[in-house]
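S.,

Sequence below, as promised.
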Amino acid sequence: MYRLNYHHLYYFWAVASEGHLTRTAERLHVSQSALSAQIRQLEEQLGQTLFLREGRKLQLTELGAVVMSYAEEIFALGNELLAAAASQHGRGTLRIGSVATLSRNFQDWFLQPVLQETDVRLVLESGSLDELLLRLKAHELDVVLSNRPVLADDKQSWRCHTLARQPVVLVGPPLAAGQVFQFERDLPTLPLLVPSRKSEIRLRFDLLCEELGLPTIIRAEVDDMAMLRLLARDAGGVALLPAIVVKDELEKGVLQQYGFVPRVEETFYAITVQRQYLPPLLQSLLRMAIVDTDLSQRVEWQVLSPLRKKPRSLARKPAGLRPVGLPSEKPAVVQWRPGK
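The prediction came back faster than expected:
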């Protein structure tokens, strides 16, 4: 039996991933005829065709789908091998993907331990969750940060680590001294700036308002937290968002926190994929972020830092952010006095 030609397999994998011969040839800087010849030689070795042409696109045959599943595992392991080798030479590179709509302040908090390590090269990329998961699957990323969980299935064994939870608040222009904000009385009269309906925060908020029978005036729906932060600061409405997003504005008094929204919070996740070797740097970062419940109850905002070998106090704790297991700071009520 002939040995498998991995060069042929790589070209097949590239075309199958792209679904288009011409675009793949352009990306790999080879001629279309040379690319076709490589795939044809693989088909001759396997004894069956791997693609069916449908218009301008290529579809995998039944055997093609089987070969593709093997190819994905083979080249993912190859990328993992390169990452493992790099981590043995100094601290190496940490490649982090972040969902484009994720709070920048949360990312800053999560990345602080890495930024303080001078021998670590950080690569931070953003995109949609689906795009990032594809790159994670191919081991082109080490971890993906998201505010949406993913579930493992028979095709992919994702590892979804819960990092932190933060309360969701209503913030707006500073209220007059002594003025009391009452949720059920005042909410129906306020122009609201809210996340889009794709957001879990929005879904939970809409359900809460429906249960309480409260109509709402939606002035703007925004799917990007950075833009929602700007509108909260400049548009004069009342924004529904995690406190961490506007922590600077709250500290400076530009905005005022009217109160926590009951039963509505945002959860942050670090998503990894099952692999033979998890870089020690990534292991350390996850241990620092995932705070043990007992520890969080005994020591306010301390985590054990494997990079520093001693407890590290998060002096720059973002407003409202709390580690997993820490009890909520406010009871679930529907009437508040404005936050200080």
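The chain has three domains: 6-84, 91-165+267-323, 166-264+330-336.

Coffee later?
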